[in-house]
Amino acid sequence: MSVAQKLEQLVRVLPGVAGYQDQETSRDTDQALRQRLAGELERLKHSLEDDTRQLAERRALDLLPALGRVCAKLDKLANLIRYAARGYRGVFDRSPLDETKLDQLYAFDLELFEEIALLGSGAQAVRDALESAPALQRATRQLDGILDTFEQSLAKRALLLEEQRGAEG
After folding, report:
1. Which of 2, 32, 149, 151 has the lowest tally of Cβ within 10 angstroms?
2. What's the pLDDT at 16?
3. C-alpha to C-alpha distance for 92 and 21, rounded to whole angstroms
């Protein structure tokens, strides 16, 4: 898939994305992308917190720790994304990313949105399993694994940007 095709896909996910080629818009584009991702993670966390309240009201207290861990991880990842601005800013201040790095960046960004969709499915599986402790434990473990994969993707994206910064320095 070409860089242009990846940008087209990204625009479908995040309207208004102009791309990273133009220095004037690159920081805004990156900020909008990260705010959207963080917002989606927050939305999922709030939904799971509602599920946690339901379990607490039913006195199913033994099921709360697993949901609490998932909510904490969602919060951690949302903050990681939201407050990464300073770390990425230097890349966008200097010069546009080269075509290969730009292609990789678009691919990571598309992958992150695909993983957000998987996280949504995982959160729905947790919600569907609220009535059964074993099913809830399985669904929570599965969602936790998806969160780990998402965190690894974020780390790869940050590494790509760090490599670009190092190459320019």
Report:
1. 2
2. 53
3. 9
The rounded distance, in Å, linking the Cα atoms of 120 and 159 is 26
Question: How many CB atoms sit inside 10 A of residue 4's CB?
Answer: 10
Of 58-62, 78-82, 84-88, least confident by mean pLDDT is: 84-88
The residue with tokens 């965190």 is 151
Backbone angles phi, psi at 59, to 5 degrees: 65, 30
- Asked if residue 4 lies in contact with residue 15, where contact means CB atoms within 8 angstroms, the answer is no
Helix (H) or strand (E) holding 149: helix 133-168
Measure CA of the first residue to CA of the last residue in the chain; give whole Å: 30
Query: Hey, what are 129's tokens?
Result: 């399993």
SS3 letters across 58-110:
CCCHHHHHHHHHHHHHHHHHHHHHHCCHHHHHHHHHHCCCCHHHHHHHHHHHH
The predicted pLDDT at position 70 comes to 94
